[in-house]
Structure formats: C-alpha cells, structure tokens
C-alpha cells in the first residue's frame, strides 16, 4: 500500500453562507480517495453536503503495484526477491508446477506462463531449471516475448557475466543497470511525497473555514439580541 496525492472533483461536507459557495473538507476523487479539499456549493446556512467544483487535493490510497522501466512490481516483497539465484537452486525448479528457466542471466519463473506460451508448454518444461538462452534466441522471439521475460523475472543468475555481444538493447541496457530492491523502495517513497502547500490546504483551510462559519453564527446571534 502506498499513498499518493491526487487531484479531482469530489464530494465534501462544506460550510456555506447563504445561497453561495462554501469551502469543504471531505472525500474527493475515485476510488478510495480521502482527505480531499474542495470548493462546494450549498444553499442555506449551516453544514451541508456539497458537490465539489474544480480541483480537490488530497491523499489517495492505492495498491502498491507500480510499473518501472517496463516491469511490473506486484509488491515490495516480490521486488526483494529480485536477488542473485544460485544455479543449483534454479535447477531444482524443473517441474510443470514450479518451472524456472534462465535467459540471458535472468532467472524467470514461467510457471504461470506455461499455458500461455504460443510455442507450447513442452519446450519450456524441457528447459526447466536450465539456461535456455540459445533456444530462446534461435526462435527469434519478438520484443513482446522479451517483455514477458522482464515481467516474469524473479532474479539474476549468480556469477553471470554481462556479455557485450547481447544484440538487443532491451536486455543489454537492463544488464548494465539492473534494478535493485533498494531503488524500488526509493521510487515508492517518492510517490509518498506530499508538497508542503498541500498540507496547508488539507489542515489549515478547513479549520479557517469552520472558524469563519462559527464567527458568522456568533455575529448573527449577537445582532438578534
Ligand atoms: C526454451 C525456450 C523457448 C523456446 C524453445 C520457445 C519456443 C517458441 C516457439 C517455437 C514459438 C513460436 C510459436 C509459433 O509461432 O507458432 C514461440 C513463441 C513465443 N514465445 Fe517462446 N520459447 C521459449 C521461451 C520463451 C520465453 C521464456 C518466453 C517469455 C517469457 C516466450 C514467449 C513467447 C512469445 C510471446 C511468443 C509469441 C511470438 C513472439 O512474440 O515472439 N518464449 N516460442
């Protein structure tokens, strides 16, 4: 789970004066956004429910699934698994129920991809637990196939040497700068970043609006006495 800032229209409880506009602090945006600050229109004096106009700023709950450099990281735990794999350990995953293969030094868990593979599951199972770089390249797989490799990659093979003759940038570039778990964490932390002025809007302005409203009610009462 990560928190991100959002902007969007929203519904909020707002204090309105007369038949005019009021400032509200409530829910904004979809889905599951909260603490939004919006401007709402409402009739009458008092606290009412108003539809937000314009922009609302706030915090948003979102799933921790992030896409980075073309790769989906389902969650933090999975990104931490992107470590170096011992070849002996890889070799143990050689069944249909648990099928890992190595392509260009990347360890890929293709168990969930077996049925989806256009070339059939048999060829993948035959190479299970082993390096299938040659077989993979012999077919002349497309860029889409290489993206699948990034998607299902769970780590790198221990002791694998970066090869200068990798002829595809998709792989060569990533080898030179493999994505490490720490970088992913930093990426997520950046998503959390909330500018100071948003904090001001979220907390100070609603209290200010409430204070104005109470002052207005107080003046009204005082004048009637
Ligand atoms: C042992 C290694 C592999 C062999 C021998 C192999 C074999 C094949 C063959 C024969 C085809 C052609 C099917 C056809 O056109 O009828 C194919 C297509 C395909 N394979 Fe593989 N494959 C291997 C590994 C992989 C891996 C690891 C992935 C991705 C994780 C993958 C993804 C694809 C995709 C997406 C296609 C569709 C055509 C394309 O986009 O290139 N394959 N494969």
TrEMBL record:
Gene3D superfamilies: Cytochrome b5-like heme/steroid binding domain (3.10.120.10). The keyword Secreted does not apply. This is Cytochrome b5 isoform X2. It comes from the Eukaryota. Belongs to the cytochrome b5 family. The gene is LOC107017706. The keyword Cytoplasm does not apply. The chain crosses the membrane at residues 7-28, 34-57, 198-218. Residues 82-158 form the Cytochrome b5 heme-binding domain. PANTHER family: CYTOCHROME B5, CYTOCHROME B5 A. Keywords: Heme, Iron, Membrane, Metal-binding, Transmembrane, Transmembrane helix. It holds the Pfam family Cyt-b5. InterPro entries: Cyt_B5-like_heme/steroid-bd, Cyt_B5-like_heme/steroid_sf, Cyt_B5_heme-BS, Cytochrome_b5.
């Amino acid at each position: 789970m990560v928190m991100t800032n959002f902007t969007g229209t929203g519904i909020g409880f707002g204090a309105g004066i007369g038949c005019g506009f009021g400032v509200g602090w409530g829910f904004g945006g979809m889905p599951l956004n909260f603490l939004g600050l919006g401007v709402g229109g409402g009739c009458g004096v008092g606290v009412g429910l108003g539809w937000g106009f314009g922009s609302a700023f706030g915090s948003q709950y979102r799933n921790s699934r992030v896409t980075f450099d073309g790769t989906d990281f389902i969650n933090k735990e999975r990104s931490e698994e992107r470590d170096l794999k011992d070849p002996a350990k890889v070799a143990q995953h050689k069944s249909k129920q648990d099928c890992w293969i190595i392509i260009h030094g990347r360890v890929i868990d293709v168990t969930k991809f077996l049925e989806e593979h256009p070339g059939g599951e048999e060829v993948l199972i035959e190479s299970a637990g082993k390096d299938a770089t040659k077989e993979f390249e012999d077919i002349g797989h497309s860029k889409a196939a290489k993206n699948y490799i990034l998607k299902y990659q769970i780590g790198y093979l221990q002791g694998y040497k970066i090869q200068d003759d990798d002829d595809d940038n998709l792989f060569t570039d990533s080898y030179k700068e493999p994505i490490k778990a720490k970088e992913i964490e930093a990426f997520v932390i950046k998503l959390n970043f909330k500018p100071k002025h948003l904090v001001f809007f979220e907390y100070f302005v609603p209290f200010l609006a409430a204070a104005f409203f109470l002052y207005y009610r107080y003046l009204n009462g005082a004048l009637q006495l």
